[in-house]
Design brief:
- There is one protein chain.
- The protein has about 130 residues and is α/β, with parallel strands linked by helices.
- The protein has a single domain, classed as Glycogen Phosphorylase B (Rossmann fold, 3-Layer(aba) Sandwich), CATH 3.40.50.2000.
- The chain has a six-stranded mixed beta sheet, sandwiched between helices.
């Protein structure tokens, strides 16, 4: 049984295919930890995955009406990417993953997988 990290851009276009893939992996006995925003928490937990939320103040994916400080997450991700990366790495501290799955649009996935020392897959394409 493998431990799989899913890094998702929280949009229907990104989450939906990732949920399908994650569900198939869970049916096969894999353990899945899935990062997204709170709006997808129920869908992620319904397939049996462990849900992890992005910190609100660092969430580069929130729209401006969702944030007290418009675009603060995006600005932080661009100007101080390690705050964004460190937040994710901190939330999974102590967990070991065999590989990660993410879309090509996911920011800093290559850095996160390098820090964790795990292989990565972009929508089924091993790297």
């Amino acid at each position: 049984m493998s431990q799989v990290l899913f890094l998702s851009v929280p949009s229907q276009g990104d989450v939906k295919p990732n949920l399908s893939l994650a569900s198939d992996l869970i049916i096969r006995g894999e353990q899945v930890t899935f990062f997204s925003s709170d709006e997808f928490k129920q869908s992620i937990e319904n397939i049996g995955a462990d849900f992890k939320a992005y910190s609100k103040n660092l969430d580069v994916f929130h729209t401006t009406e969702d944030m007290e400080e418009p675009k603060s997450g995006l600005i932080t991700a661009l100007l101080e990417p390690m705050k964004f990366i460190d937040d994710i790495v901190e939330k999974i501290r102590g967990l070991k993953f065999d590989y990660a799955v993410f879309s090509p649009a996911y920011p800093y996935a290559n850095i996160i997988t390098q820090l964790l020392g795990i292989p990565k897959t972009q929508y089924g394409v091993s790297n």
